[in-house]
Write a structure and sequence with these properties.
Layout lengths: L4 E4 L7 H12 L4 E3 L6 E5 L3 H11 L8 E3 L6 H4 L5 H10 L4 E6 L6 H4 L4 E5 L4 H10 L3 E2 L14 H8 L5 E4 L10 E4 L5 E5 L5 H8 L4 E2 L25 E5 L2 H17 L4 E5 L6 H5 L3 E4 L6 H18 L3 E5 L7 H11 L5 E2 L2
Parallel strand pairs: 1-8, 2-8, 4-6, 5-9, 10-11, 12-15, 12-16, 13-14, 13-15
Antiparallel strand pairs: 2-3, 3-7, 4-7, 5-6, 9-10
Helix pairs in contact: 1-6
The site of magnesium ion has 3 residues, from loops.
Length: 352
């Protein structure tokens, strides 16, 4: 156990001195959890192998799962990537700072621990004033996975980071809830087409609007024998209780959930339901269901912002089973679907 310091920084009025201290801790080999626009990250100096190894230890992360390198200026790409294709420059111009991670061929100098032995490196320039200022003051590329214990939902609030990493890292910078709420899109830029390895904040539609649909590939993510982003093979984003993901028309889905709620009540079980405002029912209230709202179905960004917090609330409420209603498969809804699908162990049930 070490003493974890927690500081609060207002993203609208940044305390430079506090971030200068955080930057010093990073340069001296410490681990610092910091906010980004997607989720909180757990940062270490990429050139300090011991610090990078510590990331894997404190998270309990499998060693074959590479880390994303965070930068504050797009030109740092040339320090990290062996070559920077024209497409990568267009992507940087269009989507950075923002929730996009690019996979490029890596330079020799990047320690193998960062890239888990792969010949590529993941690079991202986050759009959060605290992250940007911290990276600028650190002056080094910073390796940062999500600041959660491996297998737990990613942290969208400092309280989530504290729950998982208090006593294990030097510093946590609290800057309130993150905006996007789902991790960045991981995009392979090494081939002739852009391949979405993990759907996220920069949506397929946004990429297609710039490059045309024929340039963008979104291979199936789940149950692949050989997952594209190594991290996608693990059952993560998982709350403690088993989660079942439901698709179908809203009326049959609601009737199914109402029946399930009544049965759970008589079996003495606590049920968690993750669904949209429109799916709420008086039956859930009368049966004591923990109803967790993803907001309006027509606005998937709301669901993205809330999802990981809701999964953690299920743990806190101690529910025995969770039922989640599938989000619409467009915009950031695709990423929300992907995370719920993984939390459900790669299964979807169609309700008729
Ligand atoms: O939004 C985010 O991306 C957050 C914030 C903190 O920036 N970070 C994050 O990192 O989600 P992490 O480690 O939880 O997820 C990184 C994902 C993993 O699925 C990993 O396998 C994949 O990116 N990845 C990293 N390097 C890769 C590479 N060279 N090739 C393929 N996938 C890679
Ligand atoms: Mg993660």
């Amino acid at each position: 156990m070490i003493k974890t310091e927690i500081i609060t920084v207002n993203p609208k009025a940044i305390d430079q001195t506090a971030l200068a201290r955080a930057a010093t801790i990073l340069r001296q080999g410490g681990l610092v959890a910091f906010p980004t626009e997607t989720v909180y990250g757990l940062g270490a100096d990429i050139y300090n192998r011991d610090s990078v190894k510590k990331i894997f230890t404190v998270k309990g992360r499998p060693g074959d799962n590479p880390l994303i390198v965070h930068i504050y200026h797009w030109e740092q790409m040339t320090e990290l990537a062996r070559e920077v294709p024209e497409t990568a420059k267009v992507l940087a111009q269009q989507f950075w700072p923002g929730p996009l991670t690019m996979i490029l061929p890596k330079k020799e100098e990047i320690p193998a621990e960062v890239s888990a032995g792969l010949p590529t490196v993941a690079i991202r320039l986050p759009a959060h004033p605290v992250a940007e200022e911290l990276l600028r003051q650190t002056g080094l590329p910073v390796a940062a996975p999500s600041a959660n214990t491996s297998g737990r939902p990613s942290p969208t609030r400092s309280s989530h980071v504290i729950a998982d990493l208090d006593g294990k890292i030097e510093l946590i910078i609290d800057a309130g809830p993150t905006g996007v709420g789902i991790e960045s899109t991981v995009l392979d830029v090494t081939g002739p087409k852009l391949r979405i390895l993990r759907p996220g904040g920069v949506t397929r539609e946004m990429l297609e609007a710039v490059f045309g649909p024929e340039m963008v590939e979104a291979p199936p993510q789940i149950n692949c024998a050989r997952p594209l982003a190594p991290g996608m093979k693990y059952r993560h984003y998982a709350p403690q209780a088993p989660l079942r993901l439901l698709t179908g028309e809203s009326d049959p889905v609601r009737r199914f959930l109402e029946r399930t709620a009544v049965q759970a009540r008589s079996a003495g079980k606590q049920l968690g339901i993750i669904a949209y405002e429109e799916d709420q029912s008086p039956v859930f209230v009368s049966t004591g269901v923990t109803f967790l709202s993803l907001g309006q179905r027509a606005n998937p960004t709301e669901g993205a912002e809330r999802l990981f917090h809701l999964l953690r609330l299920c743990d806190q409420a101690g529910v025995d089973e969770i039922y989640a209603v599938a989000p619409p498969r467009w915009g950031v809804g695709e990423a929300v679907f992907n995370r719920l699908h993984k939390a459900a162990g790669g299964k979807v049930e169609e309700i008729k």
